[in-house]
Every structure is written in C-alpha cells, then in structure tokens.
Specification:
It is a single chain. By secondary structure, this protein is of the alpha+beta class. The protein is 44% helix and 12% strand. It has a four-stranded mixed β-sheet with strand order 2-1-3-4, covered by helices on one side. Strand 3 and strand 4 form a beta hairpin. Helix 2 runs antiparallel to helix 3.
C-alpha cells in the first residue's frame, strides 16, 4: 500500500479511519463517506483520487468508479465556482421548480446543464435531494434552500450574493 497520496491527504485518511470504526467489516461501506470527504475538499472527484481510494481501501477501482458514475452528487470535473442543484421530482414539480429555475437562470446567466460564461455558476436539475418538505428544494454547493420561501428575484439575489 502506498503511504503517500496526492489526493488522499492525511486529513481525509483520518476521516476515513473514523468511518471505519462505524463500518469495520466491509471496505465498500467506506467508499461513499470517503468520496464525500474528497468532494468536500476538492469540489470534484479527480480521476486519480478514485485509484488512490481504491488502493487505500483495498477494493477494485471499478467499485469506486461505479459509485461516482451512478450518483449525481459525485462529479469528475469542476463545472463552475458554485454548483446549483434544483430538484425536479414530483413534490418540487408541484412546488413549481420551473419558476425557481427561470429566476436562477436569469440572475446567474447559467442554463440548466451549463455553466455561466463567467464560470461562477453551474445549474443542474436532479431527481431528488431528499428535502420534499422544502419543495421546490435546491442546493448551492452544499447549502440547502427552501424554494417556497423565495417570493421574488430580490429574495433570490440575497441568497446568491452570499456566493459571489
């Protein structure tokens, strides 16, 4: 096993070892929490980090890559400085996520599935972020917002301003 990694820094390894106390039997149980730590630190999952994590956990790289490619929250490349995810599942659809999307697109200059020209914003429509009670729910980076509380563009501007 390697002792030094480029992306698996000592702080990430310490977190993985904390998770290992909760899930000591199967290293596959550590993949998702470890990927969250990598994502938190780098804002994406560098391809080499997949191989490092697989090496560290003693699993096949395809097990790590399979998780990265399956879940929307994990991505290989930084899309922009700020990543906005808007839920479009049934509760958020009924909560008029499309109105929220139009306002966000107007204020950021980004379109769903694309980055803004200035590289500050990326908008992604996702199936669920697990916050149906806040429908239409959305995330900016890792911060969860209640779209039902946004009544006009000024409300949204105040939120977006925190990220500029």
């Amino acid at each position: 096993m390697k002792t030094e990694y480029q992306f698996l820094t000592p702080d990430i390894i310490d977190k993985i070892e904390e998770y290992r106390k909760e899930f000591p039997y199967y290293p596959q149980q550590l993949i998702i929490p470890a990927l969250h730590e990598i994502l938190y630190k780098y804002r994406d999952i560098p391809e080499d980090a997949i191989f490092e994590l697989a090496d560290y956990l003693k699993v096949h790289p395809s097990e790590v890559e399979g998780i990265v490619s399956f879940y929307d929250m994990f991505r290989h490349k930084k899309n922009a400085k700020n990543h906005i995810r808007i839920c479009r599942n049934l509760p958020c659809h009924l909560g008029k996520y499309k109105n929220l999307l139009k306002m966000i697109e107007k204020l950021t200059g980004a379109k769903a599935g694309k980055s803004s020209e200035d590289g500050k914003w990326y908008i992604e429509l996702v199936e669920c972020i697990g916050s149906c009670s806040l429908a239409p729910a959305f995330l900016i980076n890792d911060d969860l917002y209640d779209g039902s509380q946004i009544k006009n563009e000024e409300d949204l501007k105040n939120i977006l301003h925190k990220y500029t």
